[in-house]
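Your task:
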Amino acid sequence: MRGRTLSALTRGAAVLLVALALAGCQTAGPEVITPDTPLEIEPPPPPVPEPIDFTDVLPTETFRLGLQHFKRGDYGLAERYFRATVEKDPSNVEAWIGLAGAYDHIRRFELADRAYAAAIRISGETVQILNNQSQSYMLRSDFRTARAKLRKALRLDPGNPTVINNIRILDANDPALAKAR
């Protein structure tokens, strides 16, 4: 009796495997593919539109769009709009800072340094600029320079919670350097 049960189970398992294999087979469509069989090809995506001409757009609008794209994480587009803003209004410190931040996120640090320098020429070394520069140096793994920028920011505003938090983050990521200070 035991032999028959095992044999019945073996046959049942074999039937189940064949049924599963057949269930995965394609039953629709041509059975034989020949060179004359038409291929189903998706149409190509629409062409990428030409770059926007910013000549008639106000700098306040390009700045707003730069902020919007930056907040979404679209740093390439943010860079484009911030750059258009500073080209029309070179005295816009916030646009220079936004441009520098966008460059940082696309890892164009040499351009970020230039944008930070332009912002500093206009407004001096503010807490915001120093804090953002420290973030830039953290992205480059230059923790010593990042810490120096944060120390300078802390001297300007000793109770600034953002700067204090960034120092804590820096200490947590580089404990050896934290002990050395």
